[in-house]
């Protein structure tokens, strides 16, 4: 049994220079821990509410002082000196205290900061590594290190919108995290040289560290990724595969997908996605259709499920209600799990459990606005994520999590999870 002595919070800055929330939990046992929460740029309409101050004279309205004050007063006053046995007890109190469907009263950023800092403090109190505490929370054995999907090129809201789709990622087909990162470094540096030659672009990076030249089209973005893999000495599809974050909601309007100057129907968008998977070694499509284009997600999965993971991000928002609907309608076979989309660890664990029971793949994901906190790495290992999506291999807020995965790998000797191999006989997977 644990008991909170004090909760306190601070407004800090994320990797984009925008405010976010850091919380510290002090237990009566004397153990204490601090956690910082991320923030997204490409956000789904069904995400839990990130409470911002709305004062245009300060951080253009993005300040988090209200969320911080909610932790220091309302949440602290309600939770201190209350004994609890499990994380779901604490998170249940947080949800009840907020008492809104989308965490809009106290803020999902405030609730999540308390949820994670308390989990970290309890792990210390139990004398366990955080990844083991997370595994115990989910009643799961430690199985593997999640396989990385790593940003190479970025567009959409993560960059300057020079291409409609958001990210092209590489998936090194490696045996260890150490090997995967070394392979990624080779491709990334080769890609940097390629875009300097082709686009006369120096090394400028998007929010998550991906390279973001002025691609003339989505097709060029994909082909440049393949060319970079080959130039680095690897075989596309056999040694390094691709994943694509389409983020279709960002270019969907009036029932059409505005892609490379074309106005595509849902059926035409599905045909375009199929074409990409046939000509490029793509093992995962994230948000291939818009988040409310429910009528066509099942068709997308039916057409592509034998080759490619059909993953929901904005489509599912780590929301158990939406996940249940997607399972029932066979609309996806993979979940992008972002804890701050739902607001507490317990609710995120419910989302992961639903996906796991349905036989889906789970990718545990960072956000575009991150901090140097590394709890995500422990969460991905503890909850048995099949993949992890952190960003590129640059920038300290990304590297903190990769370095934590390397440390966990060295400590546990867990194998790297198998990647989502394409079920094809065309030689690309």
In the predicted model, the low-confidence regions spanning at least 5 consecutive residues are: 423-429
Could you name the CATH class of the largest domain? Alpha Beta
**Helix percent band:** 25-40%
Q: What shape does the CA trace take? A: globular
Reading the helices and strands in chain order gives EEEHEHHHEEEHHEEEEHEHEHEHEHEH
Quickly give the CATH architecture of the largest domain: Alpha-Beta Barrel
Structure annotation, total helices: 12
Per the CATH scheme, the topology name of the largest domain is TIM Barrel
Q: Gap between N and C termini, in Å?
A: 49 Å
Q: Which range does the strand content fall in?
A: 15-25%
Our Rg estimate from Cα atoms comes to 21 Å
Task: Fill in the keyword field for this structure.
alpha/beta, Enolase-like, domain 1, TIM Barrel, 9-stranded mixed sheet, 4-stranded antiparallel sheet, disordered C terminus
What does this molecule look like?
The chain has 12 helices and 16 strands. It is α/β, with parallel strands linked by helices. The longest helix has 23 residues, at 177-199. The chain starts with a strand and ends in a 17-residue tail after the last helix. It folds into 2 domains: 2-127, Enolase-like, N-terminal domain (Enolase-like, domain 1), CATH 3.30.390.10; 147-412, TIM Barrel. It has helices spanning 65-79, 87-98, 108-126, 130-137, 177-199, 218-231, 266-279, 294-304, 320-328, 345-357, 375-382, 396-412, and strands at 2-13, 19-27, 32-36, 83-84, 147-148, 150-154, 167-172, 240-245, 252-253, 256-259, 262-264, 282-286, 309-312, 334-337, 361-365, 387-389.
């Amino acid at each position: 049994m644990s008991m909170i002595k004090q909760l306190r919070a601070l407004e800090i800055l994320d990797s984009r220079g925008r405010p976010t929330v850091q919380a510290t939990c002090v237990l009566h046992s004397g153990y204490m821990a601090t956690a910082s929460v991320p923030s997204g740029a490409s956000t789904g309409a069904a995400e839990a509410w990130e409470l911002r101050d709305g004062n245009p004279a300060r951080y253009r309205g993005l300040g988090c002082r209200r969320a911080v004050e909610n932790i220091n007063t309302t949440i602290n006053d309600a939770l201190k000196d209350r004994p609890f046995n499990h994380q779901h007890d604490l998170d249940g109190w947080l949800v009840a205290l907020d008492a809104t469907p989308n965490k809009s009263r106290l803020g999902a950023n405030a609730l999540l900061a308390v949820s994670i800092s308390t989990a970290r403090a309890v792990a210390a109190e139990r004398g366990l590594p955080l990844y083991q505490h997370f595994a115990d929370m989910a009643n799961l054995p430690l199985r593997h290190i999640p396989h990385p999907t790593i940003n190479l090129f970025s567009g959409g809201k993560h960059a300057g919108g020079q291409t409609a789709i958001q990210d092209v990622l590489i998936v090194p087909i490696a045996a260890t995290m150490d090997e995967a990162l070394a392979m990624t470094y080779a491709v990334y540096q080769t890609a940097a040289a390629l875009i300097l030659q082709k686009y006369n672009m120096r090394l400028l990076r998007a929010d998550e560290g991906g390279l973001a030249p002025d691609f003339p089209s989505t097709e060029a973005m994909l082909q440049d990724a393949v060319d970079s893999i080959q130039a680095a000495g690897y075989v596309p599809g056999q040694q390094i595969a691709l994943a694509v974050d389409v983020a279709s909601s960002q270019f969907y309007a009036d029932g059409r997908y505005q892609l490379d100057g074309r106005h595509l129907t849902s059926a035409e968008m599905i045909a375009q996605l199929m074409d990409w998977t046939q000509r490029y070694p793509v093992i995962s499509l994230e948000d291939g259709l818009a988040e409310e284009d429910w009528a066509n997600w099942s068709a997308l999965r039916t057409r592509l499920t034998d080759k490619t993971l059909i993953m929901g991000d904005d489509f599912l928002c780590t929301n158990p209600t939406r996940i249940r609907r997607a399972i029932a309608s066979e609309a996806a076979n993979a979940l992008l799990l972002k804890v701050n989309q739902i607001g507490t660890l317990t609710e995120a664990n419910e989302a992961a459990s639903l996906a796991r029971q349905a036989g889906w793949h789970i990718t545990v994901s960072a956000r575009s606005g991150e901090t140097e906190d590394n709890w995500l790495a422990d969460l991905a290992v503890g909850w048995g994520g099949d993949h992890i999506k952190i960003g590129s291999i640059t920038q300290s807020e990304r590297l903190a999590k990769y370095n934590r995965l390397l440390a966990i790998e060295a400590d546990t000797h867990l194998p790297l999870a198998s990647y989502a191999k394409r079920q094809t006989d065309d030689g690309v997977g």
